[in-house]
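Go through this:
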Amino acid sequence: MESIDDYIDKIEDPRHPRGIRYPFKDIVVICCFAILSGSDNATGIVAYVDESKEYFSSVFGIKKIPSHDTISRIMRLINFEYYASCLGDFIVNAYPTKFKKYGGKKVIHIDGKANRAASKKSEGEKPRYLMNSYVEGGSISLYSEEVGDKNNEITAIPKFLDSINIKDSIVTIDAIGMQQDILNKIVGEGGDFVIALKENQPELLKLVTKQFDNELLDISNNNLESYTSEVNKAHGRIEKRTAYLIRDTEFILKKYGIGHAFNNIGTCLLIEKEVSEKVKGEYVTTTSKSFALSSLTNLGVKELLEIKLSHWSIESSRWLLDVQFNEDKHTARRDNAPINFSTLRKFALAIKKGDEGSNKLTTKQFFIRNLLHPENIEKLLGLVR
């Protein structure tokens, strides 16, 4: 198994060489152990290590316990972009079976989100807006970059794509990614895309909607592939999705002409969602439609639906951060500290998800087991000596 040691060595120590009392690797290892045991801030990390001094001394030779201020200062100074990249690379390589591939290609989700915990709203500070990239199956960003605010997202995505290797990968982006420059960039770099289609491209949306309407009306059309999935959720809620796939996209070529970026579109996906849930003892059903366009022509409708839905799953990792770590209420806001602590929390959740021995444990049970048996964390991090 891969060892976290090899990846920590790649993270640059931000401190000045003079006056260093604690090796950088020791501090990162301590933080990983503490987060995997349920600690979620600098104070909790120090308390955890202080109670485990004998273990860290005998196993790792760590004699001195860093203070709360030392850990906070280092977390403020670490380059969060490279920090997230190194920890994310460890997850992908140490737990490869959790990352599903389609047609031999991994899926990379590009997602722009505001980090609201990183700013002081009471003092008029705006949220810090980050671009993140996730490999499907993971909850930790492989690479992050601060881009100012949401208005910069369209121009930031092509530059952001230069920072990650998208060759032979499938890139998913929300509707804001349906731009000519972005499509040309992905295909030009040897990747494929699955991108949502919404009202920000009204002409294209109208064109695709009309094409699906025509094909769905033609009952003799056997070329329209479909797939239906149904999920029974708690409290009597039933979600059913039916996806339809158009493979002949010549109608787009006719509209935009040769050389237009939209001619990279090889398939069109329509998802009809039906939700039934009990309201005052009776089932009430609501329906909605969404679209996605893709350059992929070798995958079926079921696989394309899975890829599209997997992009939405990013939101679930944020919910876990709020529930398990109460992230929105943390007060560490100086410099890179909030982003780096968030990266550590995502790191813990990603390992829990990737470890087959933890599948039947709740997140809380996972933390308790690690707290009582730190040798288990050694195995999770590839540190068995």
About this structure: The two ends are 12 Å apart (CA to CA). The chain has a mean pLDDT of 85.
